[in-house]
């Protein structure tokens, strides 16, 4: 896709070892127009009517997976991360922080819990995950943030067991 190539050239950063870093404009400044066009391009290769769940494992896939989930009407978006889910405080700073198992709606309080990038592994942090949750829950898709070091949890999620933090979809 020409538009994506142009954005990578314009906004990507070259790191040592000739690694091109593009996650900044794909995640931190979510351009829903660009991501929608990328998702539509993906739609040319997949039968979007048959997609029921989108799964991504951290960083650059978060924003794009949210747009794809929105466009194809997926019922669930799963974000595997380096953290168990959304907490009521920063668990790296507050040992009393508690995992929030269910978020019925995303309000200013929930967004404030996002902060910045939490670990050296992820680049978007909880703030990007919460933006993704806003995108998908608005159109009737639930989202779960769970620890990616425990992939078998996916079976529990699909089975309806409480895993990580589940963001409930808005009523259509």
| Shape designation | globular
The side-by-side strand order for the widest beta sheet comes to: 3-4-6-7-5
Unreliable segments of 5+ consecutive residues: 117-123
- Describe the sheet with the most strands: 5 strands, mixed
Computed over alpha carbons, the radius of gyration is 16 Å
The overall pLDDT, averaged over residues, is: 76
Q: What order do the helices and strands follow?
A: HEEHHEHEEHHEHE
Percent helix among the residues? 25-40%
Record field, number of beta strands? 7
Q: How far do the termini sit from each other?
A: 32 Å
Overview features:
172 residues, alpha/beta, 7 helices, globular
Description of the structure:
With 172 residues, this protein is an alpha/beta fold. The chain has helices at residues 2-11, 23-28, 32-43, 61-72, 108-112, 125-137, 153-158; strands spanning 13-15, 19-21, 53-57, 76-81, 102-103, 142-147, 165-167. The chain has a 5-stranded mixed beta sheet with strand order 3-4-6-7-5. A two-stranded antiparallel ribbon has the order 1-2. Helix 4 links the parallel strand 3 (53-57) and strand 4. Helix 3 packs across helix 4 and helix 4 (61-72) runs parallel beside helix 6 (125-137). The radius of gyration is 16 Å and the shape is globular.
